[in-house]
Structure of 2-dehydro-3-deoxy-phosphogluconate aldolase:
Amino acid sequence: MSSVLDLAPVVPVLVVEDAADAVPLVRALVAGGLPAVEVTLRTPAALDAVRAVAGEVPEAVVGAGTVVTPAQVADSLAAGARFLVSPGWTDVLLEAMRASGVPFLPGVSTVSEVMALLERGVREMKFFPARAAGGAAYLKALHGPLPQARFCPTGGIGPDSAPEYLALPNVGCVGGSWMVPADAVAARDWARVERLARAAAALSAGGTCR
């Protein structure tokens, strides 16, 4: 895998409270056409969830998100993560992600941060928090002076706003959690998750990321 941005138009962002839910949840997402998933390291169950998906759902590409320290980089790799996503970046974290050998998306929200990453040879980034940081209009404005940068915007994106992002030439995919609503996960309604995933996967028809 060379790029996270080209795996699917939408990357589900998962906050897993119970590692036992991870495998059926991701199987439902894959069945709906979303093979790449980001498990955020926000819960005690996160690494066990990554490990379970990596071992039991080979058709999925599981990554670790909310990676903020080199130790989390190492732990994510050990659990089987195939890509890494961070909400921001420092030089120390960037070097750890670069040394990991897997694709990674460091987070940015300003022009200067984008330029600093470009100087360091990184062209693919997470734009976060997307809606709060200026949304699709901000990314559209960035394309003129910095066309070499590509983004996965995440944060406040839903099915209504995703197509606007996906239509931009510098957006490869979007991250979101609308296809994994908390009530559906709590009820273990995997059929509903699959339906929502299928609708999200279809958003590529109006965008440029596939």
